[in-house]
């Protein structure tokens, strides 16, 4: 008989293929004992027989049986061939149609007989039961680990796995705990700070790639990876299980829970532009400044060459901010940007600016965070009550809508009570120099936070007049106390 050998192992963590090599050796010995000629060998290493993942060598083996290249098959045991009764029936059908002989090391199953098929089915059923029992044990084990706050799998980016030691310095158990990696943890902290300063994911990613900072398991960063990392509960020392935070972790925190909550709120905000919304604003006051005539938003307009109908002379008009609604108000972009930037830098250079932005409303922030935690707990209780048929779907919907609205309000209060980190980083020292180093996204965020800019109409052909640009400080900042224009 022309025999094929099929070998498989579910996990080969070390990548040495020793498991499948031992199976092949035993199967060759069994084929030799039976006097079968080995025609083909099929090996699926590090692939489960119970998942939907395709086993390429298994499929090739079935095709070779159907084409007549092999008429016997040697496996170490039935569960190496398959662990699902459904797949086993496919093999039995091939045996009926093509006369396939099947041998397993240490046993003999003849699929051409009813007794042989019965024994194969019994072995397949037992293998399936063992898989289900193993899955149940593993799920309970993983849940227990999660409830204890212990890590699972490999250390994620930003951490390194260290052993757990007792008071005498001896290693306890084989699980260990995750500590913050000094370099990678610093990268995550930097990204978090910059995102909370309203810098875009894309700009942070581009900067990391330009600085040759390798991403997790890849050379280059992208916005999706960075967003996923920043929203990991583990960064705040929290343990997640099946997509839900269930408590504190043994993992060392990269940043506080408050920072994690603020990042999640910011990155999941529906008003935040998606990756498919096109590029963001490229100029300081586009979509920020408003028209003093109609109230429409000003947009940046490229400079163009105009030809005088009277003289025929051409003149190059500079880039400008133009009203996108009435099209009747236009000002030179460089002059407006310089004026608004100068006003902000001058005010933040005053001595009282340090005290103004060095503090935040800690009590309000803590109260708002407690409200959000309480609302989350109520949402969990409502979900449990619905699952236990204590409340109806309509009641759950009404409860959820009210609680989520309250959470949005609490979250806004929490974010408003946080220190204005971008502005706080500007005050003191060389404000102009620090402003120049800020990315455009952050500069725009500062402008939006501090002032409103209105560009008033003026006669055609007049020189730029600073008085036509009205800069008003936002009411929640007592910045106009010294001089309304500063």
Summarize this, please?
The chain is built from 16 helices and 17 strands. It is of the alpha/beta class and 486 residues long.
Protein architecture, described:
It comes from Cryobacterium roopkundense. There is one protein chain. The strands form six sheets. The chain has a five-stranded mixed beta sheet with strand order 2-1-3-4-5, with helices on both faces. A three-stranded mixed beta sheet has the order 10-16-17. The protein has 16 helices and 17 strands. The protein has helices at 18-34, 56-67, 78-81, 85-98, 114-147, 182-196, 201-210, 223-230, 257-267, 333-348, 352-358, 362-387, 393-416, 421-426, 431-437, 440-450, and strands at residues 2-9, 37-45, 72-75, 101-104, 107-109, 159-162, 177-180, 238-241, 244-248, 290-291, 298-301, 305-307, 314-316, 320-323, 330-332, 451-455, 469-473. The protein folds into four domains: 2-144, Rossmann fold (3-Layer(aba) Sandwich), CATH 3.40.50; 159-267, Putative Large Serine Recombinase, Chain B, Domain 2 (Hect, E3 ligase catalytic domain fold, Alpha-Beta Complex), CATH 3.90.1750; 290-358 and 422-473, no CATH class; 362-418. It is elongated. The chain has 486 residues and is an alpha/beta fold.
